[in-house]
Design a protein that fits this description.
GO molecular function: FMN binding; oxidoreductase activity
Mean pLDDT: 97
Pfam families: FMN_dh
Structural class: alpha/beta
Cofactor: FMN
Organism: Dactylosporangium matsuzakiense
Bound molecules: ligand FNR
Protein name: Alpha-hydroxy-acid oxidizing enzyme
Amino acid sequence: MLAELRARARDALEPAHWDYFEGGAGDERTLRANEEAFARVRLVPRVLRATGPRDLRTTLLGTELRAPILVAPTAFHRLAHRDGELATAAGAAAAGAGYVVSMAATTPVEAIAAVAGPWWFQLYLQPDRDFTAALVRRVEAAGCRALVVSVDSPVFGRRERDHRNGFHDLPAGLCCENLRDAAGSVRDIAMDAGLGWAAIGWLRGITGLPIVLKGVLHPADAELAVEHGVSGLIVSNHGGRQLDGAVATADALPAVAKAVGGRLPVLVDGGVRRGADILAALALGADAVLVGRPVLWGLAAGGADGVRLVLDSLAEDLDRVLALAGVRTPAAVPPDLVVSP
Ligand code: FNR
């Protein structure tokens, strides 16, 4: 099903835009490794567990979801479909999935909030703290339920497909609508190699929203994140778009989950394409998954309906594999459901 949508998305998109959505950094080793790591997992199901109907409902940081599935923050949805983030928000809401709005969204958060279910906002902390604080105020006022701070991007990863295609900017008429400053001009997103843990303390001081760090791969950083009072972690390598050669997320997840030891919710993204991948992620220590490119395929192929189809199909697939594995709820997935190869 996803493969068919992917093919339709490819047909629908300009080749340079397809490459932007699909590509990774460098030789795309990490991009490939994410899917390969899930494909390597082997499951050891239990039998005769009398699960009956499964219950996929999941609550994360006070946000209730129909299944442990969220839309990962991805940029520029109006490049994928004319309805852009509005379609993504409507599709995710219809599927009962969480939606993490990217800081590089091409639609204002107020308009997204009008059609969205529960949504979180992804932030790159800007060197201009006043500007960052104003943006936080803006998304709070619009109804955002949590801030997802991407910490894997002190500089941009080198995306060679984009260099080859000369794709560096949004076409005329599109912009990052949430980066308007007080004067109404649109700022560029700045990556900040000066970012340290103090910045997380600063953010905690200016907002009451839960703060989730996205892009943690090392267990020592997971421990530091707990010490710095964050509310959740996302094990992520940015879908292979930042440090090429970085560990696959399914491989990094167990050590991070162990370091966290249940003190915070741990989410994971990168290469989740099947219900069995979600089941594996839960067994490896995650509380939920985020899905990036497949949502973009659904969006490009069919707008809000396409997004809903992707998310509903993943939830249905998870429901089926939970039954086949003899587990009734996501929280009850046991670690011994997976064996190392
Ligand atoms: C991303 N990702 C991303 N992450 C982020 O924190 N802010 C962003 O603006 C973007 N933008 C973005 C654009 C595109 C086209 C892609 C593919 C990815 C990373 C994203 O949130 C997530 O980590 C990965 O996409 C997960 O991997 P899969 O599901 O795409 O394999």
